[in-house]
Design brief:
The protein is mainly alpha-helical. It folds into 2 domains: 63 residues; 44 residues, no CATH class. A two-stranded antiparallel ribbon has the order 1-2. Helix 1 crosses helix 2 and helix 2 packs across helix 3. The longest helix has 36 residues.
Length: 131
């Protein structure tokens, strides 16, 4: 199986030799085949590249000196929390944006009209039936 054209660039970026990256490529392909159950297709190739990136990161951590370990752990921790924060905050941001559009009375809001309560009786009045 031929390695991807970007393999030398990925190896250089990870600080791993090209020969070692080429040796990791078949491992990534085998793991992608086990995960997806396919040997071809976009999900297979995407999984293979993601697995290769993970293997290159693990290889980089194994080849560095002990003095660089804290910095690598800090970097991976920041990357991990950045991904988590983006995934957590995206739905909240979308909800706040919709709420803001609704409060501004924008015509872009496609949600249901709010129920109107009468101030004196406190009863429920369906939308569109105001007095």
């Amino acid at each position: 199986m031929n390695p991807p054209m970007v393999l030398p660039w990925l190896a250089h970026r990870a600080g791993v030799s090209i020969g070692r990256a080429e040796a990791l490529w078949p491992t990534a392909c085998r793991q992608a085949a086990q995960i997806t159950g396919q040997r071809d297709g976009s999900s297979y190739w995407g999984t293979a590249v993601q697995t290769l990136l993970r293997l290159l990161q693990e290889e980089r951590r194994q080849t560095v000196s002990l003095l660089t370990w804290p910095w690598l752990l800090l970097q991976s921790g920041v990357e991990h929390w950045s991904r988590l924060t983006r995934n957590w905050l995206a739905p909240i941001d979308a909800s706040l944006h919709t709420w803001k559009l609704h409060l501004e009375g924008s015509r872009h809001f496609a949600g249901p009209a709010p129920a109107v309560r009468l101030p004196r009786t406190g009863g429920y009045m369906p939308p569109g039936r105001e007095r």
